[in-house]
Amino acid sequence: MPLELNFWGATRTVTGSLHALTHTGTQGRRTFYLDCGLFQGRRAESKDKNCCFPTNPSEIAGVILSHAHIDHSGNLPNLVKQGYRGPIYATPATIDLCNAMLRDSAYLQERDAEYLNRRRDRRRSVLSDWDEPLIEPLYTIKDAEQALELFQPIPMNGSFDLGDGLRLETVEAGHMLGSVSIVLDDGHTRFGFSGDVGRPHLPIIRDPQPLPHCDYLIMESTYGDRLHADEGTVLDKLADIVSRTAARGGKIIAPAFAVGRTQQIVLLLNQLMRDKRIPSIPIFVDSPLAVNVTDVFRNHQDLFDDETRAMLHGDLDADVFGFSRLRYIRDVAESKALNDLRGPMMIISASGMAEAGRVIHHLRNAIGDPRNTVLITGFQAENTLGRKILEKQDEVPIFGEPMRLRAEVAKINELSGHADQRELLSWMKPLVPALKQVFLVHGEPRQQDAFIRAVYERYNVLATAPQRGEKHKLE
Ligand SMILES: [Zn+2]
């Protein structure tokens, strides 16, 4: 019997990754989920998309995770809440990252439900006939902890027997710590899943590796129509931004994702400080999640690239994420105390798009002063505070109040973890001779349609972008 695919999440969009693959062996049919990500978007749509799964959760044979990002792993606690008790296969680094990230995600789900219920109570106290049900969080920390117990390690760059004639192979995807691309082989058909494809030369992690040959491929297409600009080296840009702000006596506030981006920036600052290319100013990483995740990075030095290993100078106890001017802050009181410190200094804090978290307090404190700099370190979605700052709007709303933006706004966008069109095409090139069809996921329609054309023109290979619920037999 052929492998069967049922597309569910990250179809014609970039979030909520989940694809169901059914294998029929001598012992019967088994369905595996590839990823089980959280759909992140407007509240009502997210609720609809995250609540339901394509099959009864208690009947799934296994979940295979490509990497730890929440849009690939963040709906696992909900799957478990709805009855799933099977194994969740992931690399050791992905397991450790999920340990920090799923707890954090559950905490945010609980806080969000609390906020909505407080708002409901206020409305009911004014309007006695206000009829709004009590909101339950999508999942709780307890659900996340139950999910974490189901994780089972699979090797990075190795293979694993899923039983009944089905084998799993993994290769490094170069997208984030522990990320892999996957091949599933039932002895007749080889099916590949790219996960998110990274880029060569990113700090810390090794470059994406080519996937062994396969007949069918599910492939991400986030930047299917885009070429990343080559804007000089990121070290030079960062050195300039830090030096000129420090010379003004200003503060640099850098909103940064707690997972990946914060560690990249810290590593680059360590290099610049060591080479005396920036002044010796205090640097703070102010995010409890970032602190926990940095510990996970420290425990997986085996995944570092050669440049990062070279910084250890053969001393495996050395710490590339620690230097004398850098302080990690967990405590809320210490975070608040940063407001009273005068520049020059740098604060790296989450969230990456300044929509939540401690960074909003630091921005409120800093954006009115032209000596300061807001350093944007990644993609900013529409309507986020980060995007408004990046667009240099005269006034931006912080905690509901308009504030004048007088600080310098700088950005470094060389650290994107997603391959662009050229990099995606070269990643898939070795697969082309054996490929029968490519299914694109994890992209907006415009990116996907452009990439479908590019794949056909370059390689004469058929690519399609399936809709949610679309089913295919891999004959
Ligand atoms: Zn990702």
What is the secondary structure topology, with strand pairs?
Blueprint: E1 3-7, E2 19-25, E3 28-34, H1 43-51, E4 62-64, H2 70-73, H3 76-81, E5 88-90, H4 92-126, H5 141-148, E6 151-153, E7 159-161, E8 167-172, E9 180-185, E10 190-193, E11 216-220, H6 234-247, E12 251-255, H7 261-274, E13 283-286, H8 288-298, H9 306-310, E14 326-329, H10 332-337, E15 345-349, H11 359-366, E16 373-376, H12 385-390, E17 395-398, E18 401-404, E19 408-411, H13 421-428, E20 437-441, H14 445-459, E21 463-464, E22 471-474
Parallel strand pairs: 3-4, 4-5, 5-6, 10-11, 11-20, 12-15, 12-16, 13-14, 13-15, 16-19, 20-21
Antiparallel strand pairs: 1-2, 1-22, 2-3, 7-8, 8-9, 9-10, 17-18
The structure holds zinc ion.
Residues 67, 69, 72, 175, 196 line the site of zinc ion.
List keywords for this structure.
single chain, 475 residues, alpha/beta, seven-stranded mixed sheet, 14 helices, 22 strands, 31% helix, 20% strand, binds zinc ion
Which class best fits the helix and strand makeup? alpha/beta
Sheet with most strands: strand arrangement:
6-5-4-3-2-1-22
Count of individual beta strands: 22
- The rough form would be described as globular
| Overall radius of gyration | 23 Å
Q: Give the overall pLDDT as a whole number.
A: 94
Q: Detail the poorly predicted runs.
A: none
Largest sheet: 7 strands, mixed
Strand content: 15-25%
In helices, the fraction of residues equals: 25-40%
Q: Ligands bound here?
A: zinc ion
Distance between the termini: 8 Å
Oligomeric form: single chain
**So how many helices?**
14
